[in-house]
Amino acid sequence: MKRMKLLAYPYSVWMAIFIVVPLFLVLLYSFTEGNIHNLTELRFSTKGYERVLEPLYLKVIMNSFVLAAISTLCCLVLGYPVAMIVSKANPKVRGMLVMFLIVPMWMNFLLRTYAWMSILSPNGFLNRVLELVGLPRLEIMPGKTAVLLGMIYNFLPFMILPIYTVLSKIDKSVIEAANDLGANKIKTFMRVILPLSIPGVVSGITMVFLPAVSTFVISGLLGGGKTPLIGDLIEQQFMWEGNWHFGSSLSIILMVMILISMAIMSRLDRNGQQEDKNPVKM
Amino acid sequence: MKKAVVRIYMGLIFLFLYAPIITLIAFSFNKSKSRGQWGGFTLDWYAELFKDRLITEALYYTILIAVLATLISTIVGTISAIGIHYMRGFSKNLVLNINNLPVLNPDIVTGVALMTLFISAGMKLGFVTMLIAHVLFCIPYVILAVLPKLRQLNRHIAEAAMDLGATPGYALRKVILPEIRPGIVSGALMAFTLSIDDFVISFFTAGNEVSNLSILIYSMAKRGVKPSINALSTLMFVTVVILLLIINKKSEKGEELLL
């Protein structure tokens, strides 16, 4: 049986080449300057990181962080009740509801974001309806609000599903016990249901925050270039400017930011059960 | 009263989730080319769809890459998961942690890192690099889907098979594989879904000559997406929904399968 582990060796080599080496290259480029096509001509330099600290770029990084945090919070506030309602529905309806939450993800997310462009644009569908009802027009696209809306829209299911999974696994007798012991509904929720659902909340937050902070599609389409995020900067550097050093520094900063947020989240999770170790999608 | 509030809330949430999808489907039947106006009903975009070379080519690459990436990553992922299962201690942890990197890292970082590697190694970005990238981000999900099934496996079963004269290869095929099949299937489904929907990693690794549907849509989005793309996604969407309904009807496990 011992020889079975040999089966993992080819993949280990593959991982070394396609996972470890590329990340090292990014790290290398982030600390150097010079010709990117000739590794021997690279010189050590912290220029990439110094540029990150320029006010213009610091503002972009702050923006990405704040927008991602706000959208995560909105997803939590909107999604938790949905998860709760679904988990309380009777089994037949529950399956359907979960399916209807997943189905939208089966349409290409770029197209769904593009559809929001048509809905929100100044002459778009939403404004037509508002005009018809006699309400003032909404001029949110392109802009921050539209980007925020796009983020919430795209990532809301990622918040609902893990919370739902945890809530539906809670032992009903625990809740009954709380009721029998005289806790009212609010108290049962605060003292029993909420603490037990923390692992779901934590993986929900991770699954929303992570893609939100690194997106460049949503801001590109709905923000109209007015609200660049760190993802837009990275795309720009690698695809259009050809400044891999600055782009790599930005990528490393993004990774560090995410590592720090995840460390904070896992600390929060430590109080809850440590069941959900894999932050795999769903 | 409470029931009404719940109904209205869920109604609003579903309206929010489905508004863009309804818009897209409506526009696929719209005679007017501009996306603000309704010019009457037409099926022209559906007919035009199959004549448009850009779209059919992108569709071809999307499906080809998804099928190949799913096949390769399912086979390699399953074999590697079995190997990892029998590893111990430090090396096992190391392999598992590196395997988790593409899952945890933002797609954009995985994308630019791979692009950096390919270009530094003098490879031309194109079909091959895009396929490598897709296999790369699919394998970890297959491994993460298969490993739990291996843990549930009674290790004595394989040993018993070998005591009874089975070669390790025979025991693997006839004893271990059938037991972990559900994990393999859900891993493969996940790989296919991720590959077919991927934009960010493809965007950085595909180069100029190849593009999948997502890349095509992104390049069109700023100028205005052709209505035939709406028609295509309507077709794909309806296909998926019908498939899901069938699966859901067929088994009570439908929900589990989707998750």
From TrEMBL, chain A:
Which residue ranges traverse the bilayer?
12-31, 60-83, 95-117, 146-167, 192-224, 244-265
Primary site of residence: membrane
Which positions fall inside the ABC transmembrane type-1 domain? 61-265
GO CC, one annotated term: plasma membrane
Q: Which InterPro entries match?
A: MetI-like, MetI-like_sf
**Subcellular location(s) of the protein:** Cell membrane
Which family does the entry's similarity section mention? Belongs to the binding-protein-dependent transport system permease family. CysTW subfamily.
The name this protein carries in UniProt is Spermidine/putrescine transport system permease protein
Q: What is the organism of origin for this protein?
A: Thermoclostridium caenicola
Q: What is the lineage of its organism?
A: Bacteria, Bacillati, Bacillota, Clostridia, Eubacteriales
Automatic annotation (TrEMBL), chain B:
**What are the record keywords, sorted?**
Cell membrane, Membrane, Transmembrane, Transmembrane helix, Transport
- A GO BP entry: transmembrane transport
Provide the protein's localization. Answer: Cell membrane
Which source organism?
Thermoclostridium caenicola
Q: Which PANTHER family match?
A: PUTRESCINE TRANSPORT SYSTEM PERMEASE PROTEIN POTI
Ranges annotated as spanning the membrane: 12-29, 58-82, 103-121, 127-147, 227-247
Write down the membrane topology: Multi-pass membrane protein
- Record Gene3D superfamilies: MetI-like (1.10.3720.10)
Q: Which family does it belong to?
A: Belongs to the binding-protein-dependent transport system permease family. CysTW subfamily.
An example of a Gene Ontology cellular component annotation for this protein is: plasma membrane
Does Membrane appear among the keywords? yes
Question: Could you name the domain of life of the organism this protein comes from?
Answer: Bacteria
Residue span(s) of domain ABC transmembrane type-1: 59-247
Instruction: State the name under which the record lists this protein.
Output: Spermidine/putrescine transport system permease protein
